Amino acid sequence: MVVQDNKIGRICIYVDLHNLNDACVHDPFPTPFANEILENVGGREVFYFMDGFSSYHQEKIAEKDRHKKTFAQEWGLFSYIVKPSGLKNEPTIVSRMVVTSFKNFMKKFLEVHLDDWTMFNSLKKNI
Questions:
Q1: Cα(125)–Cα(123) distance, rounded to whole angstroms?
Q2: pLDDT tens, 45-69?
Q3: Is the pTM of this model over 0.70?
Q4: Residue 47's closest CA among 124, 119, 125?
Q5: Rounded Cα–Cα distance for residues 12 and 6 (Å)
Q6: Among residues 27, 8, 10, which one has the least CA distance to residue 90?
Q7: pLDDT digit string (tens) for 91-114?
Q8: How many helices (H) and strands (E) does the chain have?
Q9: What is the tens place of the pLDDT at every residue in 77-94?
Q10: Beta strands in 8-102 (DSSP E)
Q11: Residue 20 half-sphere exposure, CB side, CA atoms within 13 Å?
């Protein structure tokens, strides 16, 4: 579905991904619960929060798989070249990439929940 947003002068395209998501196999990669993260960061004094904003739009789709994400509009056929948000398993894929990349830092001073990262530490007190 294409929607013209006259307030800001741009065209927004909405693609129904239900059929594609139904055909996908569930990825069981474990996502930590918020209470697990809070237990690890509890009692710390310094926090830095990061949001992997648009992290889904940074993963390229393999050329051989782009036809699976093709959609039709009145102007023709279009294929995504990066992963759109709304795909099944996308949050776990992003989480797996981050956890794999930063596995040496996990639980020491970094926690990851989907595309949100928390870095933490304690202040040393000089007495």
A1: 6
A2: 888 888 876 676 778 889 998 888 8
A3: no
A4: 119
A5: 10
A6: 27
A7: 888 888 888 888 899 888 888 887
A8: 3, 7
A9: 888 888 887 888 888 888
A10: 10-13, 46-51, 70-73, 76-79
A11: 18
CATH number of 30's domain: 3.30.70
- Residue whose C-alpha is closest to residue 11's, from 21, 25, 20, 1: 1
Q: Is residue 22 part of a domain?
A: yes
Domain assignment of residue 109, given as a range: 2-121
pLDDT at 1 over 60: no
State the pLDDT at residue 127.
Answer: 45
85, 82, 97: which is closest to 29 by C-alpha?
Answer: 97
